[in-house]
């Protein structure tokens, strides 16, 4: 019998052969890896194994996982986790987004889908109670995110109505999809949902594009999977929501007031490609967004009362019709201050543009900002762009983002992501890579989220990114190798939202996990065993890397050079990330996780965590 | 010492001489007439008296009165009462509207303003804590309501800021104004406030126009007048609000659900100039207004929790940019069904147009519907009008409303109101007046509100308009000459809103007593105060003139249409019961101490302290 | 006499959290089953979340339409009650409903309609608890023509779209 919370079946879709089969995973694997990020890493290894370094993530053989977890749909804040070998870090990222696709697929009877191969034409997968099938997506290829969603909503609902006309109105299906950026394999492209939600880190949009997979759509009519202790789960559900409802600041403002305060107060907001992290632009205050643009102030995804989302809409002027969420803090920063833009309307426009093109709203704009700094430093010329790019100019970034999505001119280079673009431009311009990499704000190829470490006043510090198996991913930062295991590593594997997690006592959440699954799961065990197992596996894959690049232990387990430049302005002027502290904490982190001083998991650790299957490959890294 | 609830001073503005004086009333007068409608009627009697029949309502000598009452601002739902000799009925109407002007004039230290004379050029009155002054309004003349309000808001704030720059931000002033309809003395034009609020009945917009008075503006910074029993007032205020808040239907829908319901359920909604009173057009259902147009679902005026107002805005399509309230039921009916319009967007457009032009949204569309029926019957032709005037043709009614406001073509005739237009068109066409008056739905020149009497299923029945001293005014209908005295007659004199009168009559009168200190009771209002005001109104209405006087008995009747059987709907065939009208009218007269023809008897006048009116009633008695 | 009640709905206030679906299905089905919830939140475009549930029309066309008398009205609250034994899954009630509100249960294929939870609707409770007030109980329901609220949710969303997004709203639903 399947443990609670799981539908018990996963779909395995071979796009090349047009073959779909159902697979199951044993209780032990599920208990050890739970779901989402954890299970995806394990399945990836099982499929690729020791050949991992030779696997090109954008090769048809590269698997793409779209997984829920046992808590998805039941615990507040349901999300989906997309994973696979990342075309940016060459390791794995558990990249999550909120979407009703997550609960719909479980209601259809599946916990997730693993794709391999490449379709010979654009397709989308449709999952229903009656199974899964590949549908032609030729008419959707090339459409932006919004149009893709509108069309799919209509055609899938119509199709389902045709198949079962008598059951009453069909609700809209859940879906994840890619925009032009994903189609054109922009390396850091996102997998999108709900017009403005993104699995942004990891570049899995490019992976979908490489497979000719435009979308994954699900509509289930069954119940959510049975749980181990239903009465307890119902009470825990109610209690968790009561706590979330009490978090009034999040409910009222989301992260939409941080665009001003992370700059002005904590001095950790990217400005002009992180040349500064401080600003005091009152025009960028939360009320300037809220009063003019917010048309829905409490917007939620399935089973969520945190409601950090607010819908923004531009109703007049040249960007009339742009719709996105707040933008949330990350996009206020990356599609705003990082471009030198402090105008809410321009920020909303560029955020909506990133959404519609299917860029990751953090990673794509990081690269665009990098490009404009190169122009500022006279490395890139007007002729590279075909126009004169300027900080603070919305049109500049509008054009660059489109050029990236369509891989036009310099956009084709930038579409490789900040790290690879730096290397390519160095080659183009006959410069040493380091002369460009000093402006590249990434860790392990993953452009860093919008929280700096220099002021030390934000939640991100010293080794947050440097030690992280997901590089620059701000949703999954490293702390001490113990406490952080029960954070994102857990939520990404149980698959629910961070914002329905923080603020809820961890003891309650783990009781909830136990009530759902019936596993012997608890906080300590997750911190000392399950979490470390997942992260150790991810670390091994990350360091195995390949085929086009490999990270060097210690040297690449570091912050970008910019994070060691003193802050040039603001209340924390002169402060910088403490290199000594980084080194010390990195050592401690490796030690806590049972990795050697270079961060390579030891044989004993692999054995202890039941990861013996890695020994052969990992031994070569030591 | 002034009784509680009164500022104690009135402004007396002679527009011809540009002189402004202050005056006061003896306590006895206030106790007898209270404020608003009562005091206004008393002022008119005192100032015009026996010359009433000779006074042209649009002549400079006609006093125009803006009167608050003692309960204004304290009791929930602040309003102001506008009055004077009515250019439509030639009697007196206490015409009220919700506006912060009522608050500001009281906090500036005045209970009201009386205007006489005519300004040489367009002016507006500005009332502040320092007194009152006339300000040039030439730049505002000709502007529509919305623009007038926008400009006044800005310029008055600037003036005040210039005078007292150090007191912090000046809040917006309270403002009442007229649109082009008032300026051009469209006889039933409204006095407007807050873009869509109107003192609609009585035609006082044209009286303002006749005086070259574009607006009255007040900004007071003082406290509201002291009350007699402050602790009681506080508790009663809290209780009254709690009662208002239980009116969940009003709070949620206002009267906006009636545009469908009064047609479909009670069959009492004017359809195509009252040719029918039933429709089953689901498009007029309130969800169609709410989902697409309502941008604020709880909108209120000062000190109101009933919140019957909802702000509607058309955001796309040919009427883009139109803003009005719900529209409330009256305008759903008159600017919708009565013109054969059943589309919410078109209805909102015509309603907004009425607001902007300064037409009364009930009375003007009554006249437009009347014209359309004459067109339907071939009496008015395309040649007379200049275009086809078909039912449901929103563009055509849009044009006609403009023609009326600017008195162009047939609009000049229609601008005289339904009754006078009927007479003029009869003359034009060489027809007998009765041949046209049979389609004119008015009582005493006042076009009837949107509640029919034929189905007998609405709150309006038999003689509720026929016997009313305010004719077709649906906000002040009569029932038995006793209980109705403590209804609208009281509310219009204490000056607060009828939609905040949810609490019991006992509470309301305790409230009145606590504010004023007068020994006031429901019973005294029903037997003495109410009848005194209504009897004086009746006397003045009887005197009428100079262009029109109403015949007792004959004109104390419903319009002919109300005696035609309903042609459609669940109450098909039903008609207002003429016999019952006669019986109840007689009973009403008797209760009020008027003779069988409705002429106040001598002993009644003596009893009510109106002995000096008696000689003027002599000629009406047979 | 028990006061009749009605669930008023305001789609513009609906967050889309679907807790109403979860609470409803837990009450009626014993576990979370959004598709078997008597209230279903449609979302023809993100942001346009429309709660869809029985409006208790005064004339109950669904009850009228049922050929086997499986539908009746609850005498206290006016809810439509489905006799699942009698229901033949013919879909007549679905077709008769002006808003196509009833649906065939994904489990047993029987007509499924809001029963107002015997006077204390779970959906309203969780919606109110979260401060949305997209669902509220009103006692004066009949006067506002509840039947008019029985609309196809996509039509409602089309109206809401223009209200929220202005001219763009005309393009977001195909």
Strand order of the largest sheet of chain B: 2-1-6-3-4-5
Gyration radius of chain B, to the nearest Å? 23 Å
Please state the structural category of chain B: alpha+beta
C-alpha geometry of chain A: globular
Distance between the termini of chain A: 41 Å
Short summary of the structure?
Chain B contains 24 helices and 17 strands. Chain B is of the alpha+beta class.
Structural write-up:
The complex is a heterotrimer of chains A (622), B (622) and C (174). With 622 residues, chain A is of the alpha+beta class. Chain A has 25 helices and 17 strands. In chain A, α12 runs parallel beside α15 (394-405). The longest helix of chain A is centred in the last third of the chain and has 22 residues, at 523-544. In chain B, a hairpin with a 2-residue loop joins β7 (123-128) and β8. Chain B is of the alpha+beta class. Chain B is 37% helix and 12% strand. The mean pLDDT of chain B is 97. The radius of gyration of chain B is 23 Å and the shape is globular. Chain C is of the alpha+beta class and 174 residues long. Chain C has a single domain, classed as Alpha-Beta Plaits (2-Layer Sandwich), CATH 3.30.70. Chain C contains five helices and eight strands. The termini of chain C are far apart. Chains B and C meet through α8, α9, α10 and β13 of B and α5 of C.
Name the descriptors.
heterotrimer, A: Aldehyde Ferredoxin Oxidoreductase,  A, domain 1, 2 domains, six-stranded mixed beta sheet, 12% strand, globular, B: 622 residues, alpha+beta, Aldehyde Ferredoxin Oxidoreductase,  A, domain 1, Aldehyde Ferredoxin Oxidoreductase Protein, subunit A, domain 2, Aldehyde Ferredoxin Oxidoreductase Protein, subunit A, domain 3, four-stranded mixed beta sheet, 24 helices, 37% helix
Task: Give the SSE layout.
The complex is a heterotrimer of chains A (about 625), B (about 625) and C (about 170).
Chain A: E1 10-14, E2 19-23, H1 27-33, H2 36-48, E3 64-67, E4 79-84, E5 95-98, H3 101-107, E6 112-116, E7 123-128, E8 131-136, H4 145-163, E9 174-177, H5 180-183, E10 191-193, E11 197-199, H6 204-210, E12 213-219, H7 230-245, H8 248-253, H9 258-264, H10 286-293, E13 294-299, E14 309-313, E15 323-324, H11 329-334, H12 344-357, H13 363-376, H14 382-385, H15 394-405, H16 410-414, H17 417-429, H18 433-437, E16 442-443, E17 446-447, H19 463-466, H20 488-494, H21 506-517, H22 523-544, H23 579-592, H24 603-608, H25 615-619
Parallel strand pairs in A: 1-6, 7-12
Antiparallel strand pairs in A: 1-2, 3-4, 3-6, 4-5, 7-8, 9-12, 10-11, 13-14, 14-15, 16-17
Helix pairs in contact in A: 1-2, 2-20, 2-22, 7-21, 12-15, 13-15
Chain B: E1 10-14, E2 19-23, H1 27-33, H2 36-47, E3 64-67, E4 80-84, E5 95-97, H3 101-107, E6 112-116, E7 123-128, E8 131-136, H4 145-163, E9 174-177, H5 180-183, E10 191-193, E11 197-199, H6 204-210, E12 213-219, H7 230-245, H8 248-253, H9 258-264, H10 286-293, E13 294-299, E14 309-313, E15 323-324, H11 329-334, H12 344-357, H13 363-376, H14 382-385, H15 394-405, H16 410-414, H17 417-429, H18 433-437, E16 442-443, E17 446-447, H19 488-494, H20 505-516, H21 522-543, H22 578-592, H23 602-607, H24 614-617
Parallel strand pairs in B: 1-6, 7-12
Antiparallel strand pairs in B: 1-2, 3-4, 3-6, 4-5, 7-8, 9-12, 10-11, 13-14, 14-15, 16-17
Helix pairs in contact in B: 1-2, 2-19, 2-21, 7-20, 12-15
Chain C: E1 6-9, H1 19-29, E2 40-42, E3 50-52, H2 61-65, E4 71-73, E5 80-82, H3 92-96, E6 103-104, E7 111-112, H4 122-129, E8 135-138, H5 153-165
Antiparallel strand pairs in C: 1-8, 2-3, 4-5, 6-7
């Amino acid at each position: 019998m399947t443990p609670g919370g799981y539908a018990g079946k996963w779909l395995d879709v071979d796009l090349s052969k047009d073959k779909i089969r159902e697979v199951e995973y044993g209780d032990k694997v599920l208990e050890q890896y739970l779901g989402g990020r954890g299970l995806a890493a394990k399945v990836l290894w099982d499929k690729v194994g020791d050949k991992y370094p030779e696997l090109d993530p954008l090769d048809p053989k590269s698997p793409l996982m779209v997984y829920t977890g046992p808590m998805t749909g039941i615990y507040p804040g349901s999300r989906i986790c997309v994973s696979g070998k990342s075309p940016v870090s060459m390791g794995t990222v558990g990249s999550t987004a909120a979407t009703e696709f997550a609960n719909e697929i479980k209601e259809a009877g599946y916990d997730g889908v693993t794709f391999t191969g490449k379709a010979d034409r654009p397709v989308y997968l449709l999952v229903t109670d009656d199974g899964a099938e590949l549908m032609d997506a030729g008419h959707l290829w090339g459409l932006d995110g919004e149009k893709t969603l509108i069309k799919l909503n209509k055609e899938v609902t119509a199709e389902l109505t045709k198949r079962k006309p008598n059951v009453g109105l069909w609700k809209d299906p859940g879906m994840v999809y890619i925009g032009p950026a994903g189609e054109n394999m922009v390396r850091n492209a996102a997998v999108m949902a709900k017009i403005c939600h993104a699995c942004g880190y990891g570049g899995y949009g490019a992976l979908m594009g490489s497979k000719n997979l435009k979308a994954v759509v699900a509509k289930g009519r069954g119940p959510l999977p049975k749980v181990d202790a239903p009465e307890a789960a119902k009470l825990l559900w109610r209690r968790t929501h009561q706590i979330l409802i009490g978090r009034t600041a999040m409910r009222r403002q989301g992260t939409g007031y941080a665009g001003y305060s992370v700059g002005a107060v904590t001095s950790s907001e990217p400005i002009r490609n992180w040349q500064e992290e401080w600003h005091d632009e009152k025009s960028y205050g939360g009320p300037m967004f809220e009063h003019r643009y917010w048309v829905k102030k409490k917007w939620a995804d399935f089973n969520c009362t945190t409601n950090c989302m607010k819908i923004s809409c531009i109703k007049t002027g040249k960007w009339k019709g742009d719709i996105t969420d707040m933008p949330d803090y990350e996009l206020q920063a990356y599609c705003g201050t990082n471009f030198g833009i402090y105008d809410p309307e321009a920020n909303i426009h560029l955020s909506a543009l990133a959404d519609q093109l299917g860029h990751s709203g953090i990673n794509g704009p990081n690269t665009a900002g990098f490009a404009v700094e190169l122009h500022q430093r006279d490395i890139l010329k007007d002729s590279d762009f075909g126009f004169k790019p300027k900080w603070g100019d919305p049109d500049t970034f509008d054009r660059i983002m489109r050029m990236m999505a369509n891989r036009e001119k310099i956009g084709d280079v930038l579409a490789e992501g900040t790290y690879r673009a730096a290397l390519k431009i160095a080659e183009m311009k006959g410069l040493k890579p380091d002369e460009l990499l000093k402006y590249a704000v990434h860790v392990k190829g993953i452009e860093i989220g919008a929280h700096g470490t220099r002021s030390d006043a934000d939640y991100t510090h010293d080794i947050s990114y440097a030690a992280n198996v997901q590089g620059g991913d701000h949703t999954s930062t490293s702390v001490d190798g113990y406490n952080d295991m029960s954070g994102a590593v857990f939520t990404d594997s149980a698959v629910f939202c961070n914002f329905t997690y923080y603020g809820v006592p961890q003891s309650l959440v783990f009781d909830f996990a136990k009530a759902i699954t019936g596993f012997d799961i608890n906080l300590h065990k997750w911190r000392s065993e399950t979490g470390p197992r997942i992260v150790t596996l991810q670390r091994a894959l990350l360091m195995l890397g390949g085929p086009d690049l490999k990270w060097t232990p210690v040297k690449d387990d570091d912050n970008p050079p910019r994070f060691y430049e003193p802050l040039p302005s603001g209340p924390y002027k002169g402060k910088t990330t403490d290199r000594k502290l980084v080194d010390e904490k990195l050592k401690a982190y490796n030690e806590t996780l049972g990795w050697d001083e270079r961060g390579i998991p030891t044989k004993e650790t692999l054995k202890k965590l039941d990861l013996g299957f890695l020994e052969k490959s990992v031994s070569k890294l030591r | 010492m002034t009784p509680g609830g009164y500022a104690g001073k009135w402004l007396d503005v002679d527009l011809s001489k540009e002189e402004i004086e202050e005056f006061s009333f003896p306590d006895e007068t206030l106790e007898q007439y209270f404020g608003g409608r009562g005091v206004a009627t008393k002022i008119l009697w005192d100032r015009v008296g026996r010359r009433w029949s000779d006074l042209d309502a649009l002549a400079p000598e006609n006093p125009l009165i803006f009167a608050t009452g003692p309960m204004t601002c304290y009791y929930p739902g602040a309003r102001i009462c506008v009055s004077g000799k009515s250019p439509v009925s030639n009697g007196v109407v206490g015409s009220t509207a919700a506006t912060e002007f009522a608050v500001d004039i009281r906090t500036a230290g005045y209970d009201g303003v009386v205007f006489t004379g005519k300004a040489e050029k367009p002016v507006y009155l500005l009332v502040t804590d320092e007194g009152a002054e006339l300000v040039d309004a030439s730049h505002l003349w000709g502007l529509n309501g919305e623009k007038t309000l926008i400009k006044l808001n800005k310029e008055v704030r600037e003036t005040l800021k210039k005078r007292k720059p150090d007191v912090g931000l000046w809040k917006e002033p309270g403002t009442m104004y007229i649109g082009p309809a008032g300026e051009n003395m469209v006889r039933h034009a409204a006095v407007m406030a807050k873009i869509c609020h109107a003192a609609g009945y009585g035609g006082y917009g044209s009286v303002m126009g006749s005086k070259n008075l574009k607006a009255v503006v007040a900004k007071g910074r003082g406290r509201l007048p002291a009350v007699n029993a402050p602790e009681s007032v506080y508790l009663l205020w809290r209780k009254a609000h709690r009662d208002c808040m239980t009116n969940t239907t009003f709070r949620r829908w206002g009267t906006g659900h009636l545009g469908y319901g009064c047609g479909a359920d009670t069959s009492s909604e004017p359809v195509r100039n009252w040719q029918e009173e039933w429709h089953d057009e689901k498009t007029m259902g309130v969800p169609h207004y709410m989902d697409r147009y309502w941008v604020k679902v709880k909108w209120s005026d000062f000190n109101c929790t009933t919140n019957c107002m909802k702000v509607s805005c058309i955001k796309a399509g040919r009427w883009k940019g139109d803003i009005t309230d719900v529209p409330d039921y009256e305008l759903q009916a008159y600017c919708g069904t009565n013109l054969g319009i059943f589309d919410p967007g078109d209805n909102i457009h015509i309603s907004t147009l009425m607001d902007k032009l300064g037409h009364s949204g009930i009375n003007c569309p009554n006249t437009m519907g009347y014209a359309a029926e004459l067109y339907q019957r071939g009496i008015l032709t395309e040649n007379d009008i200049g275009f086809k005037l078909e039912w449901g043709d929103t563009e055509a009614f849009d044009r006609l409303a403009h023609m009326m406001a600017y008195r162009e073509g047939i609009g000049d005739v229609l601008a005289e109101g339904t009754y006078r237009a009927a007479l003029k068109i009869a003359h034009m066409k060489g027809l007998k007046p009765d041949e046209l008056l049979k389609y004119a739905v008015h009582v005493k020149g006042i076009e009837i509100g949107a509640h029919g009497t034929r189905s007998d299923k609405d709150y309006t029945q038999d003689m509720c308009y026929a016997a009313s001293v305010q004719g077709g005014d649906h906000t002040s209908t009569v029932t038995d000459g006793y209980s109705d005295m403590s209804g609208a007659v009281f509310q219009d004199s204490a000056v607060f809103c009828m939609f905040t009168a949810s609490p019991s009559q006992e509470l309301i009168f305790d409230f009145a007593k606590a504010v004023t200190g007068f020994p006031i009771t429901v019973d005294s209002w029903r037997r003495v105060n109410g009848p005194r005001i209504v009897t004086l109104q009746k006397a003045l209405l009887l005197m009428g003139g100079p262009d029109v006087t109403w015949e007792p008995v004959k004109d104390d009747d419903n319009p002919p249409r109300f005696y035609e059987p309903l042609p459609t709907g669940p109450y098909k065939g039903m008609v207002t019961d003429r016999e019952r009208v006669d019986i109840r009218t007689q009973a009403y007269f008797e209760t009020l101490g008027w003779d069988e023809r409705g002429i106040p008897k001598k002993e009644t006048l003596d009893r009510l302290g109106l002995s000096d009116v008696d000689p003027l009633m002599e000629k009406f008695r047979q | 006499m028990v006061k009749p009640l009605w669930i008023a709905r305001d789609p513009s206030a609906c967050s889309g959290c679907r807790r109403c679906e979860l609470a409803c299905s837990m009450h009626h089905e014993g576990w979370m089953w959004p598709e078997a919830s008597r209230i279903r939140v449609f979302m023809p475009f993100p942001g346009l979340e429309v709660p869809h549930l029985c409006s208790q029309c005064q004339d109950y066309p669904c009850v009228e339409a049922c050929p086997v008398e499986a539908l009746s009205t609850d005498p206290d609250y006016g809810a439509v009650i489905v006799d699942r034994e009698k229901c033949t899954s013919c879909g007549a009630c679905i077709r008769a409903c002006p808003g196509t509100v009833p649906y065939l249960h994904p489990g047993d294929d029987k007509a499924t309609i809001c029963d107002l939870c015997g006077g204390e609707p779970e959906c309203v409770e969780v919606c109110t608890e979260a401060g949305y007030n997209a669902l509220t109980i009103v006692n004066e329901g009949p006067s506002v023509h509840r039947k008019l609220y029985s609309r196809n949710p996509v039509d409602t969303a089309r109206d809401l779209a223009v209200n929220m997004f202005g001219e763009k709203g005309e393009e977001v639903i195909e």
